[in-house]
Every structure is written in structure tokens, then in C-alpha cells.
Amino acid sequence: MLSRLRQRLARADAGETNEEGGDWPGAGGQAHRPAAVLVPIVLRDDGPTVLLTRRTDHLHHHPGQISFPGGGMEEGDASAEAAALRETREEIGLPPDRVEIVGRLPDYLTGTGFRVTPVVGLLRPPLVLELDSFEVAEVFEVPLAHFLDPGRHQRHTLHVEGVARHFHAMPYGDYFIWGATAGMLMSLYRLLAAD
After folding, report:
1. pLDDT at 57
2. Which residue ranges form the domains of the chain, and what is each CATH number?
3. Which is it for strands 107-109 and 17-22: parallel, antiparallel or unpaired?
4. 156 CB-near residues (< 8 Å, 6+ apart)
5. For labelling alongside 194, which of 104, 132, 149, 164 has CA 20 to 30 A away?
6. Nearest residue to 187 via CA among 137, 102, 120, 125
7. What pTM did the predictor assign?
């Protein structure tokens, strides 16, 4: 699976936007602030997992939601990869030299005004993490196989100010993984499931 992931990411068109555009109707027509997240795949002996965070409840953007480590790009960030690694270190204490970057997934536009570049990285245990308790409530891992199983994929609709908002969800145990995070995981699924 990892060789397939590397091959597919090597052929992916960096900077493209996923075919759904994002998680908000008409999001493509507005200016978006650049952001980047790390999609961390942990190479466990019993199969790869995806490392996710649960954001603290008091944050302004996406409080309490499940997300990848990451955030807005800053002036000193040379690339989306640099931003994703910087944010990951700030949020969960993972040093950049512990991450093997293997490519990017299509950009994802959010209703909160971000154009998110998902950067895929491989992590080899052991992982020693130090969470920023202001931003991150917890870190957990989900088997990659869970997200690659179409039977686990859900589609929901929410009406906001009279507009239907459609979003993906991939619940896992007590965790409701939805919105931008689930949308980016769908991009990973499509990449690996394509013939």
C-alpha cells in the first residue's frame, strides 16, 4: 500500500483543488487564506494508522472538532510542507525530522475562508509527542483501513442560513470525523482506490 501511495502522490497535481471544491457551496468564488495540514500516516507493525487531533473547545475556528495538525501559512513559511511541519511541531511537538514527506493531496476550500493544502507524511514509531494544551485536547490514531472502507463513508446535509451544506463523515468509535478532515480523507481514499 505504501508503494502505491508514493506512486500516486508522485503523479498527483500539486495545487489542484478536489473535484468537490470544499465544504461550502460557492466557496471557490471567494478569496481564501492559504493553510496547510499534515496528514500523518503512522507505520505501525499491525498496519498503518492516521494520526488525528481533537481541538480544544474554546478555539475560534472549528472548536472541539477532529482535525489534522496544521494551520494558516505564515510569512516565513517557504512552502505548504514547511507550514505543515511548523504547525505540527507547535501543536503536538513532533519534530520535522521525524516526518518523511511523500506528497500532497488536492487543496481543500473551507467555509471559514481557508485554502488548505494537505501534506502527506509518514511517521515511524516510537512517537514522543508534547501537546499544546491550548489548541489540542487529545491525539489519537485510526487504522488507515477504516478510511479506505467505502462502507464507513457517510454523506450528510446541514442547512446554514438557508443554504444546503453537504459534507462527508467517517465516524470512528466515539469520534465524529467530518467536514474538511473527512473531505481530505476522501481525497486520500480516491487516490488509493483509483485504478
Report:
1. 75
2. 2-193 (3.90.79.10)
3. parallel
4. 166, 167, 168, 169, 178
5. 164
6. 120
7. 0.90
